[in-house]
Amino acid sequence: MTLFIFYPSKMNSLFTDPLIHIKDKDTVKRKISKFSLDKLQIVSDFDSTITQDNGHTSWSLFSKSWLMPDEYIKERDDYFKYYYPFEIDATLSFEKKDFLMREWWTKHLELFIKYKLNINIIDKIIQKDSFVDFRHWMKEFMDISATLNIPFIILSAWITNTINEFLSYKEAQFDNIHIVSNELKFDNDWFCVGINKDIIIHSENKDEHDMPAHIQEMVKWKTDIILLWDSLTDTKMIDEELREWALKIWFLAEMKNHSKDKFMDSFDIVIASNYDSLRVPEMVLELIK
Ligand SMILES: [Mg+2]
Protein backbone atom coordinates (compact mmCIF):
# COMPACT_ATOMS: atom_id res chain seq x y z
CA MET A 1 0.00 0.00 0.00
CA THR A 2 1.29 3.44 -0.89
CA LEU A 3 1.40 5.34 2.39
CA PHE A 4 3.79 8.08 1.48
CA ILE A 5 1.03 10.22 0.01
CA PHE A 6 -0.29 10.61 3.58
CA TYR A 7 3.04 11.98 4.77
CA PRO A 8 3.88 14.64 2.22
CA SER A 9 6.12 16.63 4.58
CA LYS A 10 8.24 13.61 5.46
CA MET A 11 8.57 12.53 1.85
CA ASN A 12 9.42 16.11 0.98
CA SER A 13 12.23 16.39 3.51
CA LEU A 14 13.61 13.10 2.25
CA PHE A 15 13.77 14.59 -1.23
CA THR A 16 14.69 18.18 -0.50
CA ASP A 17 17.45 18.08 2.12
CA PRO A 18 20.69 19.17 0.39
CA LEU A 19 22.68 16.50 2.27
CA ILE A 20 20.41 13.67 1.10
CA HIS A 21 21.18 12.63 -2.46
CA ILE A 22 18.75 10.51 -4.45
CA LYS A 23 19.33 9.94 -8.13
CA ASP A 24 16.09 8.11 -8.94
CA LYS A 25 13.29 9.43 -6.77
CA ASP A 26 10.63 7.31 -8.49
CA THR A 27 12.48 4.08 -7.70
CA VAL A 28 12.85 5.10 -4.05
CA LYS A 29 9.13 5.93 -3.86
CA ARG A 30 8.27 2.63 -5.53
CA LYS A 31 10.42 0.59 -3.16
CA ILE A 32 9.09 2.31 -0.05
CA SER A 33 5.47 1.97 -1.16
CA LYS A 34 5.97 -1.74 -1.90
CA PHE A 35 7.38 -2.43 1.59
CA SER A 36 5.24 -3.66 4.46
CA LEU A 37 6.27 -3.81 8.14
CA ASP A 38 5.44 -7.51 8.56
CA LYS A 39 7.85 -8.46 5.75
CA LEU A 40 10.59 -6.00 6.67
CA GLN A 41 14.11 -6.63 7.97
CA ILE A 42 16.99 -4.23 8.50
CA VAL A 43 20.56 -5.29 7.74
CA SER A 44 23.23 -2.88 8.88
CA ASP A 45 26.95 -2.47 9.10
CA PHE A 46 28.09 -1.20 12.53
CA ASP A 47 31.34 0.74 12.28
CA SER A 48 30.75 4.28 10.88
CA THR A 49 27.20 3.30 9.94
CA ILE A 50 25.41 2.91 13.27
CA THR A 51 28.26 4.85 14.83
CA GLN A 52 29.70 8.20 13.78
CA ASP A 53 32.65 8.16 11.42
CA ASN A 54 35.16 9.80 13.76
CA GLY A 55 38.30 8.03 12.59
CA HIS A 56 38.25 5.55 15.50
CA THR A 57 37.48 2.40 13.61
CA SER A 58 36.91 -1.10 14.87
CA TRP A 59 39.87 -2.92 16.35
CA SER A 60 42.06 0.21 16.46
CA LEU A 61 40.30 1.33 19.65
CA PHE A 62 42.38 -1.09 21.67
CA SER A 63 45.61 0.71 20.83
CA LYS A 64 44.10 4.20 20.83
CA SER A 65 42.74 3.73 24.34
CA TRP A 66 46.27 3.29 25.79
CA LEU A 67 44.81 0.63 28.06
CA MET A 68 46.93 -2.13 26.51
CA PRO A 69 50.72 -2.59 26.96
CA ASP A 70 53.12 -0.57 24.78
CA GLU A 71 54.40 -3.80 23.17
CA TYR A 72 50.86 -4.60 22.02
CA ILE A 73 50.48 -1.12 20.52
CA LYS A 74 53.77 -1.41 18.63
CA GLU A 75 52.97 -4.84 17.19
CA ARG A 76 49.43 -3.78 16.31
CA ASP A 77 50.72 -0.63 14.58
CA ASP A 78 53.26 -2.67 12.59
CA TYR A 79 50.47 -4.96 11.34
CA PHE A 80 48.36 -1.92 10.47
CA LYS A 81 51.17 -0.36 8.42
CA TYR A 82 51.67 -3.61 6.54
CA TYR A 83 48.06 -4.72 5.93
CA TYR A 84 46.05 -1.49 5.63
CA PRO A 85 47.42 -0.59 2.16
CA PHE A 86 46.15 -3.99 0.98
CA GLU A 87 42.73 -3.37 2.50
CA ILE A 88 42.22 -0.19 0.49
CA ASP A 89 43.88 -1.48 -2.70
CA ALA A 90 41.07 -1.76 -5.26
CA THR A 91 43.31 -3.63 -7.72
CA LEU A 92 43.72 -6.74 -5.55
CA SER A 93 41.61 -9.81 -6.38
CA PHE A 94 38.96 -10.87 -3.87
CA GLU A 95 40.88 -14.10 -3.14
CA LYS A 96 44.14 -12.27 -2.41
CA LYS A 97 42.46 -9.64 -0.27
CA ASP A 98 40.37 -12.24 1.55
CA PHE A 99 43.54 -14.18 2.41
CA LEU A 100 45.42 -11.08 3.62
CA MET A 101 42.53 -9.74 5.70
CA ARG A 102 41.97 -13.14 7.31
CA GLU A 103 45.72 -13.22 8.15
CA TRP A 104 45.58 -9.68 9.61
CA TRP A 105 42.49 -10.32 11.77
CA THR A 106 43.98 -13.64 12.98
CA LYS A 107 47.30 -12.04 13.92
CA HIS A 108 45.51 -9.25 15.78
CA LEU A 109 43.46 -11.81 17.66
CA GLU A 110 46.69 -13.57 18.64
CA LEU A 111 47.92 -10.25 20.09
CA PHE A 112 44.83 -10.10 22.33
CA ILE A 113 45.77 -13.52 23.70
CA LYS A 114 49.51 -12.75 23.94
CA TYR A 115 48.95 -9.46 25.78
CA LYS A 116 46.11 -10.78 27.94
CA LEU A 117 43.20 -8.58 26.87
CA ASN A 118 40.81 -8.45 29.81
CA ILE A 119 37.06 -7.90 29.32
CA ASN A 120 37.28 -4.82 31.61
CA ILE A 121 39.21 -3.03 28.88
CA ILE A 122 36.25 -3.38 26.50
CA ASP A 123 33.96 -1.81 29.12
CA LYS A 124 36.39 1.06 29.69
CA ILE A 125 36.81 1.78 25.96
CA ILE A 126 33.07 1.89 25.36
CA GLN A 127 32.43 4.06 28.40
CA LYS A 128 34.90 6.65 27.12
CA ASP A 129 32.42 8.77 25.15
CA SER A 130 35.01 10.25 22.82
CA PHE A 131 35.70 6.88 21.17
CA VAL A 132 32.39 5.51 19.93
CA ASP A 133 29.03 7.20 19.67
CA PHE A 134 25.81 6.80 17.74
CA ARG A 135 25.43 8.56 14.45
CA HIS A 136 22.75 11.18 15.21
CA TRP A 137 19.23 9.71 15.17
CA MET A 138 20.43 6.09 14.91
CA LYS A 139 19.50 5.38 18.54
CA GLU A 140 15.99 6.67 17.84
CA PHE A 141 15.85 4.53 14.70
CA MET A 142 16.82 1.43 16.69
CA ASP A 143 14.24 2.28 19.37
CA ILE A 144 11.49 2.43 16.73
CA SER A 145 12.65 -0.82 15.11
CA ALA A 146 12.39 -2.48 18.54
CA THR A 147 8.90 -1.08 19.16
CA LEU A 148 7.79 -2.39 15.77
CA ASN A 149 9.69 -5.67 16.33
CA ILE A 150 11.50 -5.52 12.98
CA PRO A 151 14.49 -7.90 12.83
CA PHE A 152 17.61 -5.70 12.90
CA ILE A 153 20.75 -7.59 11.91
CA ILE A 154 24.12 -6.01 12.58
CA LEU A 155 26.64 -7.64 10.25
CA SER A 156 30.09 -6.51 11.29
CA ALA A 157 33.80 -7.31 11.27
CA TRP A 158 33.93 -5.74 14.73
CA ILE A 159 33.99 -7.67 18.00
CA THR A 160 30.58 -8.81 19.23
CA ASN A 161 31.48 -8.17 22.86
CA THR A 162 32.31 -4.53 22.04
CA ILE A 163 29.10 -4.00 20.07
CA ASN A 164 27.07 -5.59 22.88
CA GLU A 165 28.77 -3.40 25.49
CA PHE A 166 28.12 -0.30 23.35
CA LEU A 167 24.43 -1.12 22.88
CA SER A 168 24.05 -1.94 26.56
CA TYR A 169 25.85 1.24 27.68
CA LYS A 170 23.68 3.31 25.34
CA GLU A 171 20.48 1.48 26.40
CA ALA A 172 19.85 0.07 22.94
CA GLN A 173 20.09 -3.65 23.58
CA PHE A 174 16.78 -4.90 22.23
CA ASP A 175 15.38 -8.37 21.45
CA ASN A 176 14.96 -7.57 17.74
CA ILE A 177 18.72 -6.89 17.34
CA HIS A 178 20.94 -9.75 16.20
CA ILE A 179 24.69 -9.29 15.99
CA VAL A 180 26.73 -11.31 13.50
CA SER A 181 30.40 -10.55 14.16
CA ASN A 182 33.46 -11.89 16.00
CA GLU A 183 32.67 -12.99 19.53
CA LEU A 184 35.71 -13.16 21.81
CA LYS A 185 36.02 -16.08 24.19
CA PHE A 186 37.31 -15.48 27.75
CA ASP A 187 38.68 -17.74 30.48
CA ASN A 188 37.43 -17.80 34.08
CA ASP A 189 39.52 -14.72 34.91
CA TRP A 190 38.08 -12.86 31.89
CA PHE A 191 41.25 -12.89 29.78
CA CYS A 192 40.78 -13.42 26.03
CA VAL A 193 41.57 -16.93 24.80
CA GLY A 194 40.25 -16.78 21.21
CA ILE A 195 36.93 -16.44 19.37
CA ASN A 196 33.82 -18.56 19.57
CA LYS A 197 33.86 -19.92 16.03
CA ASP A 198 36.18 -21.03 13.25
CA ILE A 199 35.57 -18.24 10.76
CA ILE A 200 36.78 -14.72 11.45
CA ILE A 201 34.55 -12.08 9.89
CA HIS A 202 36.78 -9.42 8.36
CA SER A 203 36.18 -6.47 6.06
CA GLU A 204 35.99 -8.63 2.93
CA ASN A 205 33.84 -11.59 3.92
CA LYS A 206 30.75 -10.14 5.58
CA ASP A 207 27.99 -12.09 3.87
CA GLU A 208 24.33 -12.83 4.58
CA HIS A 209 24.89 -16.45 3.49
CA ASP A 210 27.24 -16.92 6.46
CA MET A 211 24.70 -15.73 8.99
CA PRO A 212 23.85 -18.32 11.67
CA ALA A 213 21.11 -20.74 10.59
CA HIS A 214 18.65 -19.51 13.27
CA ILE A 215 18.89 -15.94 11.94
CA GLN A 216 18.53 -17.04 8.31
CA GLU A 217 15.47 -19.06 9.31
CA MET A 218 13.97 -16.13 11.23
CA VAL A 219 14.24 -13.68 8.31
CA LYS A 220 13.44 -16.16 5.52
CA TRP A 221 10.09 -14.52 4.88
CA LYS A 222 11.31 -10.97 5.43
CA THR A 223 11.67 -10.12 1.77
CA ASP A 224 11.65 -6.33 2.21
CA ILE A 225 15.06 -5.05 3.27
CA ILE A 226 16.51 -1.75 4.36
CA LEU A 227 20.31 -1.83 4.05
CA LEU A 228 22.61 0.59 5.84
CA TRP A 229 26.21 0.83 4.72
CA ASP A 230 29.26 3.06 4.63
CA SER A 231 31.94 1.04 2.84
CA LEU A 232 32.16 -0.43 -0.64
CA THR A 233 33.03 -3.87 0.75
CA ASP A 234 29.71 -3.76 2.67
CA THR A 235 27.88 -4.31 -0.61
CA LYS A 236 28.94 -7.94 -0.43
CA MET A 237 26.80 -8.26 2.71
CA ILE A 238 23.80 -9.21 0.62
CA ASP A 239 23.22 -11.19 -2.51
CA GLU A 240 22.26 -8.33 -4.84
CA GLU A 241 20.75 -10.64 -7.43
CA LEU A 242 18.28 -11.91 -4.85
CA ARG A 243 17.68 -8.49 -3.38
CA GLU A 244 16.45 -6.44 -6.31
CA TRP A 245 14.02 -4.51 -4.09
CA ALA A 246 16.37 -3.78 -1.21
CA LEU A 247 16.43 -0.11 -0.26
CA LYS A 248 20.12 0.75 -0.16
CA ILE A 249 21.03 3.63 2.14
CA TRP A 250 24.64 4.75 2.00
CA PHE A 251 26.53 6.94 4.45
CA LEU A 252 29.11 8.83 2.49
CA ALA A 253 32.29 9.16 4.51
CA GLU A 254 33.68 12.53 3.51
CA MET A 255 36.92 11.70 5.28
CA LYS A 256 37.56 8.95 2.78
CA ASN A 257 37.23 11.32 -0.17
CA HIS A 258 34.58 9.36 -1.99
CA SER A 259 32.80 10.91 -4.91
CA LYS A 260 29.09 11.12 -4.28
CA ASP A 261 28.18 10.80 -7.97
CA LYS A 262 29.79 7.39 -8.19
CA PHE A 263 27.73 6.12 -5.27
CA MET A 264 24.49 7.69 -6.44
CA ASP A 265 24.60 5.34 -9.44
CA SER A 266 24.71 2.28 -7.16
CA PHE A 267 22.70 3.23 -4.09
CA ASP A 268 19.17 4.50 -3.61
CA ILE A 269 19.90 7.12 -0.98
CA VAL A 270 23.31 8.67 -0.30
CA ILE A 271 23.68 10.65 2.92
CA ALA A 272 26.54 13.11 2.96
CA SER A 273 27.31 13.38 6.65
CA ASN A 274 29.85 11.67 8.87
CA TYR A 275 27.89 12.25 12.05
CA ASP A 276 24.22 12.43 11.22
CA SER A 277 21.73 10.01 9.68
CA LEU A 278 19.53 13.05 8.96
CA ARG A 279 16.66 10.85 10.22
CA VAL A 280 16.54 9.08 6.85
CA PRO A 281 16.15 5.51 8.20
CA GLU A 282 13.53 6.77 10.66
CA MET A 283 11.66 8.66 7.92
CA VAL A 284 11.62 5.54 5.74
CA LEU A 285 10.07 3.52 8.58
CA GLU A 286 7.47 6.23 9.13
CA LEU A 287 6.56 6.08 5.46
CA ILE A 288 6.17 2.30 5.54
CA LYS A 289 3.99 2.40 8.69
MG1 LIG B 1 31.58 0.49 8.28
At a glance:
The protein has 289 residues and is an alpha/beta fold.
List keywords for this structure.
single chain; 289 residues; alpha/beta; Rossmann fold; DNA polymerase, domain 1; 2 domains; seven-stranded mixed β-sheet; two-stranded antiparallel sheet; 11 helices; 9 strands; 39% helix; 15% strand; globular; disordered N terminus; binds magnesium ion
How is this structure best described in words?
With 289 residues, the protein is an alpha/beta fold. It has 2 domains: 4-54 and 133-288, 3-Layer(aba) Sandwich (Rossmann fold), CATH 3.40.50.1000; 58-127, DNA polymerase, domain 1. Helices cover 39% and strands 15% of the residues. It is built from 11 helices and 9 strands. The chain has helices spanning 8-16, 25-34, 61-64, 70-87, 94-114, 119-127, 138-147, 160-169, 213-218, 260-266, 280-288; strands spanning 20-21, 40-44, 152-159, 177-182, 184-186, 192-195, 224-229, 247-251, 269-271. It has a 7-stranded mixed beta sheet, with helices on both faces. The chain has a two-stranded antiparallel sheet with strand order 5-6. Strand 5 and strand 6 form a beta hairpin. The chain binds magnesium ion. Magnesium ion binds at residues 45, 47-49, 230-231. Magnesium ion (MG) is lined by residues 45, 47-49, 230-231.
Give the strand tally: 9
| CATH domain topology of the largest domain | Rossmann fold
Q: Shape from CA axes?
A: globular
Q: Give the proportion of residues in helices.
A: 25-40%
Largest β sheet strand count, sense and barrel closure:
7 strands, mixed
Q: What is the count of distinct domains?
A: 2
Structural class: alpha/beta
| CATH class membership of the largest domain | Alpha Beta
Straight-line N-to-C gap:
10 Å
Oligomer: single chain
Taking strands numbered 1, 2, ... along the chain, how are they ordered across the largest sheet? 1-9-8-7-2-3-4
Determine the number of helices (DSSP H or I, runs of at least 4 residues).
Answer: 11
* CATH-defined architecture of the largest domain: 3-Layer(aba) Sandwich
The low-pLDDT segments are 1-7
Proportion of residues in β-strands: 5-15%
Mean pLDDT: 88
